[in-house]
Amino acid sequence: MMRAALFVLFPVLMIAALSLAHAGKSGLALAALAGALVAGVLVLRQLSRWAAVRRDARFLVPFLFGVKILLVWEVLCVALGVPTVLLPAPSLILAKLFANLPMLWGDFVQTVIRAVIPGWIIGCASGFLVALVCDRYDFLRRGLLPIGDFVSALPIVGIAPILVMWFGFDWQSKAALVVVMTFFPMLVNAVAGLAAAGALERDLMRSYGASWFQTLVSLRLPAAMPFLFNALKINATLALIGAIVAEFFGTPIIGMGFRISTEVGRMAVDMVWATIFVAAVVGSTFYGLLVLSERAVTFWHPSQRVR
Amino acid sequence: MTERALPLRSSWIARLGEGSAFPVLAVLAGLAALWYLVCLPMNAALPQMEGVEGLGARYAVAWGLERPVLPAPHQVIGELYRSVFEVRLSSPRNLAFHAWVTLSSTLLGFVFGVLFGILLAVGIVHSKTLNLSLMPWIIASQTVPILAIAPIVIVALGSIGLVGLVPKAIISAYLCFFPVTIGLVKGFTSPEAMHLDLMKTYNAGRGAVFFKLRWPAAIPFLFASLKVAVSIALVGAIVAELPTGAQAGLGARLLSGSYYGQTVQIWAALFAAALLAAVLVGLIGAAERITQKAMGGRA
């Protein structure tokens, strides 16, 4: 009975806090929020106990946690009258988002479709090709790998102003930065991945009289897949960051980085948050798609087994 | 023992090919040579190159241009030397001054981020609710292009009167808590079930299990994470200086260089940033070796 009451109480208190805050009754709203938080914590604890038994309950816990954070954000912003410059309420951000969809779509095309995706593909592909060359010539591998490791730790975004000078203000310079940023993680991971196939399996391939290329395609590439996907995932985030930061150094009047830097200058913080929301959705979708294809390709790997 | 029987012919040359020092140097030399070669085609369109005949003369001009499209390596190193040693240390034209500004916010953010990351990891390991509700969001937080929020953090904090070092440090901290948390959660859960069971037979409490088993087991993971964390803390500090038009710092140096077309200045700032990253990662590597020795591990 107690538990059932809890599960009813949580949403009721949530809705009460929201509507009280928007009706201008700050004190009552904060009281309801406090109640909703306590109920929420109890609900989450109960749910995570269930999640240990039922796997499908697992998605509920982080989801409810996210809802709770959003609720706290909204109610605190509205009830306490937090200035919009400091932190706009989620409802304001969403309103701004839907009011400016065509502009945000234009920014998305300029930054993601023109710069991020081609740059990511070229960077990953060339990193992989150089890794293949390194694999054939051991001298190159020993020479290039420590350098690649070192370069991965460097602040590569810093070359953005140079690339903007070389390739102009438009998307080409952003794509070029993405290429440079994604090259080294792919190189390092691909070299490690190509070395991942076991000696026994390689000997077996040799006993079949398989050529270097055949061994590559049917043994070593599949064995390298977990490493390659690791690099692809790291690079997905890096690529978005690179394209957006490169736009801070000069763009035509379109693009997500441009939007962020100009709207910050005009103190239109809700527009900036709307752009960040788009970037977040793009980033997680990109990452999520990669995780899904990783599961499909490397289903045999221990890390993918259902525990 | 068969290898011993072979005659050791040209021993030091043979040894050169074995380690990684020689290949690395060879590749670096190749890259530098390529850089010098590319200088001419990259700078060929500049007005100063007009009317210069002969390949040797053209290269001589291309390697000494005032504002080249691509400066030669020795120009960058010369600028680096001049702007560190030949200018007063307090002057805004001194690169060491800018590097110090960036370094201080990097280190502050690094300390914040690492402490926060450790706290989160401890919470996640000890509470199932926290583990289930936080982990997916922590991972999701990194699929978001976090550097994009740098300007907004600086403006928001500036509006409540927080300016200077702290906002930049917060961005660094936000970037570097993630590898620490992920690495430590992995490290804290790395002791085998057998060891945990042994602790249970000793009737050890949660605190004892944490400090005597989980924490020591997590140390290698911690240092691996710290190396990643310190280099992205530096990136965070540099990028945080971009959108606000900061007056000091390596990021500000990049920005002013790109405004005024001072390519040599940009390259010098980049080299300084690379040097800083190398020193920071190297220091953590040294700390790792010392800790390993103190804990009785094998180097």
Kindly describe this structure.
Chain A has 2 domains: 2-82; 98-304, MetI-like (MetI-like fold), CATH 1.10.3720.10. Chain A is 79% helix and 0% strand. Chain A has helices at residues 2-22, 26-51, 60-79, 90-99, 101-136, 138-152, 160-167, 171-194, 199-207, 212-247, 256-265, 269-297. In chain A, helix 5 (101-136) packs antiparallel against helix 10 (212-247), helix 6 crosses helix 8 and helix 7 (160-167) packs across helix 8 (171-194). The longest helix of chain A has 36 residues, at 101-136. Helix content of chain B is 75%, strand content 0%. Chain B is built from 13 helices and no strands. In chain B, helix 11 (206-240) runs antiparallel to helix 13. Chain B is elongated, with a radius of gyration of 25 Å. At the A-B interface, helix 2, helix 3, helix 6, helix 7 and helix 10 of A face helix 3, helix 7, helix 8, helix 11 and helix 12 of B.
Give a nutshell description of this structure.
The complex is a heterodimer of chains A (307) and B (299). By secondary structure, chain A is an all-alpha fold.
